[in-house]
Amino acid sequence: MTQSELADRVLLNQYKLSRIESGEMSCPEETQQMLAVELGVTSDYLFRPPPSPIETHSPLFRARSRVTQRDKYATHAWANLINEEYSRLSARNNAIPSRLTPAPGADPADAAHRTRLALGFNEDEPLPYLVLAAERVGVRVLGLPFHVPTIDAFCAWHEQTPVVAIMNGVSADRVRFTVAHELGHLILHEVGQSGKRVEDEADVFAAELLTPRHALLPTLPRQPNLSNLTMVKTQWGVSIKALVRRCRELGVIDADRALSLYKQMSKKGWNRKEPGFVPPEKPRGLRKLAELSYGAGPNVERMAADAGWSEALTVDVLRQHATASELPRRPQDAGPPTASAENVIYLSDRPARGTSERAERPSARQV
């Protein structure tokens, strides 16, 4: 909402609301209650001293197109709101300290290789997950219950803590690339740096982190097309568009072939939604801290009361953060199959008709 839109909702003119917000005019109790309802917080929350905002650390945006100032303000407001609660919960529990090592000016590809190892992965495997791995090295990843078509995510340093904020409604393949891109900014660039060179370096970092050159090349088809690149997408967890660009960078295809593939994707409507499955990823940290403070669930009523949020807002924020059952796993950690699995067919070991029956109970064979 703009200030004018909020003023209309609480039956004030914008001038009076501006004076209330700046502290030049007292706020009547009835107006306090109306503001609290519209903003999804308690009346007491509105009078709390604000914590250090993350916008003082010059966040860097990864956007699909030009970002309006209004979208920036709205995104900052959501990130500050959730970061404040993350900080409060961290103070009550032992949050993971940051082990992300900035290396301004480093070669992006070399930095990506070192980051892979720091995240706990070797240099040859497709990353089974990225968001959780980033959190494990102390990156504060925030899921915002807010969608802006022009913004996927942004990063910042809040005091000594690296922060990545992810918008709601971003596709799984774009989440992976955008988080990798923001990690590139946090590692390679000083606060306040911007421009095409900075964005290009973050893209190189992200591409090498997700699809290392030496490991990706043997898996690429000799003659890439949209069909076989869809299969590569499911293996490496990156978008088809990113793979086309990667094929061009590695010399597998030339510029004309890349342009042709881009045009085919656009004609099929794949610029908005591609085929091919990439497991969705959500940040886990905030919900985990809430569970440590308020029990499994967690207890929304108690959390909302302490945060100064409405219960509806609390639920919206928690939904952007993974439950234990939503956490991704490495393939070897998947454990034994269960009877409820929808993508597993069980075949009995019972002998064919006419042969002797086994004495023991038939076992299940997974295919």
Order of helices and strands: HHHEHHHEEEHHHHHHHHHEE
Largest sheet: 4 strands, mixed
Count the helices. How many?
A: 15
Distance between the termini: 53 Å
What percent of residues adopt helix (DSSP H or I)? Answer: 40-55%
Low-confidence stretches: 334-349, 355-367
Number of strands: 6
| Coarse morphology | globular
Strand order of the largest sheet: 1-3-4-2
Short description:
With 367 residues, this protein is an alpha+beta fold. Helix content is 45%, strand content 8%. The strands form 2 sheets. It has a 4-stranded mixed beta sheet with strand order 1-3-4-2, with helices on both faces.
Structure characterization notes:
With 367 residues, this protein is an alpha+beta fold. The chain has helices spanning 3-9, 14-22, 29-39, 69-92, 108-118, 131-136, 172-188, 196-210, 213-216, 226-236, 240-249, 255-268, 285-294, 300-307, 311-319; strands at 60-63, 140-143, 151-158, 161-166, 346-348, 364-366. 32% of the residues are buried. Helix 4 runs parallel beside helix 13. The chain has 15 helices and 6 strands. The strands form 2 sheets. Strands 1-3-4-2 form a 4-stranded mixed β-sheet, with helices on both faces. A two-stranded antiparallel ribbon has the order 5-6. The chain starts with a helix and ends with a strand.
